Every structure is written in structure tokens, then in C-alpha cells.
Amino acid sequence: CHQDTRPPEALGDLSSQTISAMQALQRRRKARTPILELHAGSRSYSKLKRLMDVVLSGAALVLTAPLMVIVASAIRLTMREPALFRQERPGYGVRSFTMLKFRTMRTPAGADARGVPDAERLTRLGRFLRETSVDELPEFWNVIRGNMSLVGPRPLLPEYLARYNTQQRRR
Asked: Would you say the pTM of this structure is higher than 0.70?
């Protein structure tokens, strides 16, 4: 990497403030000191993480919207049920929120509905959606709403809360 070793006066009519900033940047590069340092848990880290969540999730929703319309239509036609599956999950600070996913299983009917194994309820379309993770595309909406983050622990079912230790509950 070639560095300009000319004295500041030889650089023309750049302001002395700009020259000082450039020299400071060169010193940081030599010392390998980061220009921006973010620590997990800091206020600036949280704000940057939230900004990235919103921007990336918004872009993902826009880019996958045509696919989501096709998937929702296919679910509606094959299962005759709402395309979105809603389930209460514990989020950050154990606050409850409604997680959205595409429906992959038929809702059991009848008095003995709870006894039907998941394998029998899973549809061919549902299996494909799960294998390709397309069933999770609606979760980007949860990220935009602030219920979830793109990076972090997956929200488990409420019945697992009793097994959480103090640190896990904070997350």
C-alpha cells in the first residue's frame, strides 16, 4: 500500500483541518485503532443494530413481496385456511408478542384434535416451505415492529420459560 509522504504544504489548498484529520486517520491505520468502536449493550450499538434490523427487514419484505403473495395464495388454495400462522412467543424481557409465519400444517378438526401427530398435519407445500425457510419470511414484519431482531436468540415457546436461567430471560 503506497502512502503519500509529501508534506501538508505540498498538497495544495486543502484546509489545515482536513489535513489534520487525514493525518489522524493515517496514525489510526498504522496503530490499527478502529475508527468507530461499538460495544454490545452500548446505546450506539443498540441504535445501529435497530437501524440495520429495520433497513434490512424492510428491503427483504419489499424484495420478497411477490414470492409472499404467491405463497399466501397457494396456502389459501390448498388448505382453505388463513395463510399466516400466529403464535404467542416471549420476546426481549419476556414480553409476549405475536409471531407471524406462513401456515405449514392443517388445523386438526374434531374432538380428538390434539392427538393428531404433526407429521400427519404437515402438508407437502408446508414441508417445502420449511425446507426452504420460506415459511419464516413473515417474521421480517416482527423485526420491523421491534418484536424480534435479525441477530439474536430465537424466541422459543412460552412453555420453555420455566427452563430459562436469569441471563436467558434478559435476552
From this structure: no
